[in-house]
Design a protein that fits this description.
alpha/beta; Rossmann fold; Jelly Rolls; 3 domains; eleven-stranded antiparallel beta sheet; 12 helices; 24% helix
């Protein structure tokens, strides 16, 4: 059953919902000018997927509205902004308001339905789901779960070279965005071919062809949007040369140019490897809280509620590569892209590099330390730190059998990349950054497991690596292995955030 889209309309006349779509919306209407008692009753205990404001709102009502309005989920009539007060402009800025013309109601309802539904969701079709055409006679082998490498003759005309044996379920009232990780020689040309199938009869409904030469996500727009259907995907190729094919990502499409959630964005390098990010202006006051998601097989943003609860501006980063993430490291272009995203939002807020807190849990600790060390932040808060990636991979054999095989793919992926870099050892790249950093004015808060079966050297290495600096280090150990007591780690992690935020006001932040 589809969860209703919760909308608050503040205007003069309540809009009439399209026939046959009443069950899709929980529509709340408050008439202008706003009566305080009416608005308080309308928003009590609610969080809206979208707030629509058609006219001027009195400054006294903004505090109430602010509590129920999420960033990127506020539409305002562009014609009402000429006489906006300073308080109203600040409200619009904090909520990243979108100016709209509300004349075409049908297109408005279509956009709400397609872009403001509840819940993010994304997955990937992995390498083991690929089947190479028996007609291809060239070389083929897998780089673990990272990619499938093909080299040879792909014929002069387009032929199916790969098909994914796994179907994609298109839920009712959803369309699907596709993104393929791949690289190929200039002599090789490819495109995606997608078939849509009816769920009950198995009848083919549609056929789509997507050119992969540009940077846009490929959106499968179903002719049966309101029904569950299934998608099958093939890769067509022609030419002669090398072709490397990685994960095929699929996500519920937000057709307002957002990724996964309203306001979600993405960056990718020349290898089409992505970093996903989401920025909330919060209260526009320092510091900027930067959170790196941990291991996450389902694609999406982690830590939204936690960071929102701290009220300050925050930036969420998520690594959708491999299975659950690739520790936020990659090509020079990829890493420079991550740095640029962080710098962009620090500058947008008018903050200094020091007016930041970098943070992460487990896999996210690597990103927090790796990039945080390049900004000399106010603090770095981490839980269950992982520093030595090759060491974590080696420990699978005896200390951690049958758990976290993703690290093997990360090690394999970076082995070939590091052969052409100055740092040849995967276990040195993070500590080299930390030793070269200026963390003399930084507080480093570390929660760790006393019997960690991933990286039991992390804490001692950080203490040794920072012994010559004036870094203020706080640590707390908990009984157990890496995943034995995540709730205690999370509680301590959040308590350190709250403590440091409280202290920061007395330190000019």
């Amino acid at each position: 059953m589809v969860k209703k889209i919760n909308v608050l309309q503040i205007g003069f006349i309540e809009w009439e919902l399209p026939i046959g779509q009443w069950h899709l919306f929980d529509w709340n209407f408050v008439m202008l000018p706003i009566d305080k008692n009416v608005i308080e009753e309308a928003v009590a205990g609610k969080s809206f997927d979208l707030v629509i404001i058609e006219g001027q709102v009195a400054d006294g009502m903004l505090e109430i509205l602010s509590k129920c309005t999420e960033p990127y989920r506020l539409w305002v009539d562009s014609s009402t902004l000429k006489e906006a007060s300073q308080l109203y402009e600040n409200y619009l800025k904090r909520k990243v308001a979108i100016c709209k013309d509300f004349n075409d109601k049908q297109s408005i309802f279509d956009e709400i339905l397609h872009s403001y539904f509840h819940r993010q969701y994304g997955e990937k079709l992995k390498n083991h789901a690929m089947k190479v055409s028996p007609n291809f006679k060239g070389k083929q082998f897998f780089y673990g779960n990272n990619s499938l490498f093909l080299a040879g003759d792909f014929s002069n005309d387009y032929q199916q070279i790969i098909t994914w044996k796994q179907f994609i379920r298109k839920d009712d009232y959803r369309n699907i965005d596709l993104w393929l990780e791949f690289t190929c020689d200039k002599e090789v040309q490819v495109y995606l071919k997608v078939f849509e199938w009816e769920s009950q009869s198995g009848k083919m409904l549609n056929q789509f062809e997507f050119d992969l030469d540009d940077a846009r996500l490929k959106t499968v727009r179903s002719s049966k949007y309101s029904e569950v259907t299934y998608l099958s995907v093939s890769l067509m190729a022609k030419g002669h040369g090398k072709l490397s094919v990685g994960a095929l990502h699929w996500r519920h499409s937000r057709e307002n140019q957002s990724t996964l959630i309203p306001g979600g964005k993405r960056y990718f390098d020349q290898n089409r490897e992505e970093i996903l990010y989401y920025f909330s202006p919060g209260n526009l006051k320092p510091p900027l809280n930067i959170y790196f998601s941990g291991y996450r097989p389902a694609e999406g943003f982690e830590g939204y509620g936690m960071m929102k609860g701290l009220k300050h501006p925050y930036l969420l980063l998520s690594d959708p590569r491999v299975e659950g993430g690739s520790f936020y490291i990659g090509s020079k272009e990829y890493e420079e892209g991550v740095l640029a995203i962080i710098k962009e939002h620090i500058e947008l807020l008018g903050f200094s590099n020091h007016q930041t807190i970098f943070s992460g849990l487990s896999m996210g600790t690597f990103g927090a330390l790796y990039y945080g060390s390049q900004f000399s932040p106010y603090a770095i808060i981490i839980g269950k730190p992982i520093i030595y990636l090759s060491y974590v991979a080696e420990r699978i054999v005896l200390e951690r059998p049958d758990e976290f095989y993703t690290i093997l793919d990360v090690a394999l992926k970076n082995k070939y990349r590091l052969e052409n870099s100055q740092v040849k050892d995967l276990d040195r790249i993070l500590m080299q950054k930390i030793k070269a950093a200026d963390l003399s004015q930084t507080t480093l808060a570390i929660a760790y497991m006393l019997h960690d079966d991933y990286d039991d050297r992390a804490l001692s290495s950080l203490l040794m690596g920072l012994q010559d600096q004036n870094t203020h280090i706080i640590s707390r150990g908990f009984e157990g292995r890496h995943n034995d007591n995540s709730p205690a780690i999370n509680r301590w992690f959040l308590s350190q955030y709250r403590r440091l935020l409280k202290e920061s006001y007395g330190r000019g932040m």
